[in-house]
Amino acid sequence: MAQSQFVNMLRQPKVIAAAVLFIAAVTLVVINLRGGPRPDYGRNDRTADTLMQLAPALETAIKANPQLASLDELQDVAADEKRDAWGNPIQMRTEGEGREREIRLVSGGEDGAMGTADDLTAIFNQVWISEYDEPGLNFVRIERPAATPAGAGG
Description:
By secondary structure, the protein is of the alpha+beta class.
């Protein structure tokens, strides 16, 4: 008799709904725990915005000095505007020489260390605009950190 009362209780809509919600909650917790730590997308987005906001000043500085080698040479940009959302300095790196080269503005990301998986990079091509006989800057892309692989520690 006790068993049939238990079965009848399990058939009630409220009990079924509660069981489904419980299973869904446990599933979400397990999925979150397996994924490991996630990048801080809010700060990543703010840093990506900062990298892009430096572009006009960078282009102006390149027109004055086509061999610009450092963000320190950007006179019209305050020091705090050359920092990422974690407060770390943004670095400028160049590849190539002469009139056409690649310029990278790099944030060390959350860990502040350059060359790690959480770095954010804005990539520009410095080009020669023959129509105006001056250098210019073309945006290429932003490289963002990938989500932390499942099972990776942090």
